[in-house]
Each structure stands twice: as structure tokens, then as C-alpha cells.
Design a protein that fits this description.
The relative contact order is 0.16. This protein has one domain (4-126). The chain is mainly alpha-helical. The chain is globular, with a radius of gyration of 17 Å. The chain has helices at residues 4-27, 33-46, 63-79, 82-94, 102-126. The chain has five helices and no strands. Keywords: Membrane, Transmembrane, Transmembrane helix. One of its GO terms (cellular component) is endomembrane system. It is found in: Endomembrane system. Residues 35-71 form the DUF1232 domain. Its main location: membrane.
Length: 127
């Protein structure tokens, strides 16, 4: 019987594979357009080198890793025909290096910049 740790490791490997598979789906013309749009957003966020909520923030820091990304992947997988998803998953296992999303990086940095500007504006209005 597999331990909880073994099941967690297997789940993490499947998430990594599916992130790469949806990254491939976003670029595949056979993917329905709604799935391509969502796949682009989820893959860009999941592959971004920085998180929207940094991991050092207690509890919330791992929220994106444990909830947001898996739920996004699940939504994309539901929109892609099963035979195509199986093909994309097989192709994802052959990808040697994990891709990095510069778009995701830029979007997260833009969100942080906007939040900083908003906080500075709020703080200066209080003084």
C-alpha cells in the first residue's frame, strides 16, 4: 500500500506533467479556442518564475500551488478532448526542461507594481 508521501509525490509529478501538457495545448491548433485561452493563462501563471502570493507568506503563500494551479489545470483538461489531452500528456513527459513563462512573470510583476502604487496612493492620502 502506498504511503501518503508516495501519493503526494505522484500527485506533484502529475501536476508538473499537466502544466507542461497545457502549455503545449495552448500552442496546439487542435485545442478548442476557449481551452487555448484558459490554458495560456494557467500555463503562464504556473510557469512564471515568481508567484502572485510569495511562498514565504504563511498559509496563503502555498495557496496558489495547492489550489489555484490545480483547479486551473482541471478546468483546462475538462475543455480539451480526451484523446488530444492524452497525446499532449505523452508529449509533456518527453519535454526535458520545464519551460518558463516570461509573460507570466511580466503579469505577476505588473500586478505587484499596481498593488504597490495603490498602497502608496492610499498611504499618502491618509497623511
Amino acid at each position: 500500500m502506498a504511503s501518503a508521501l508516495d501519493r503526494a509525490k505522484q500527485w506533484a509529478r502529475s501536476i508538473k506533467r499537466d502544466v507542461i501538457a497545457i502549455w503545449l495545448a495552448a500552442k496546439d491548433s487542435r485545442t478548442p479556442w476557449t481551452a487555448r485561452i484558459l490554458a495560456t493563462c494557467v500555463a503562464a501563471y504556473a510557469l512564471s518564475p515568481i508567484d502572485l502570493i510569495p511562498d514565504f507568506v504563511p498559509v496563503l503563500g502555498y495557496l496558489d500551488d495547492l489550489l489555484i494551479v490545480p483547479l486551473g489545470i482541471l478546468a483546462v483538461v475538462k475543455l480539451i478532448p480526451p484523446p488530444l489531452m492524452a497525446e499532449l500528456r505523452a508529449a509533456a513527459t518527453l519535454v526535458a526542461a520545464k519551460p518558463v513563462s516570461r509573460v507570466g512573470l511580466a503579469l505577476v510583476m505588473l500586478l505587484w507594481l499596481l498593488a504597490t502604487i495603490w498602497l502608496v496612493a492610499m498611504f499618502t492620502n491618509l497623511l
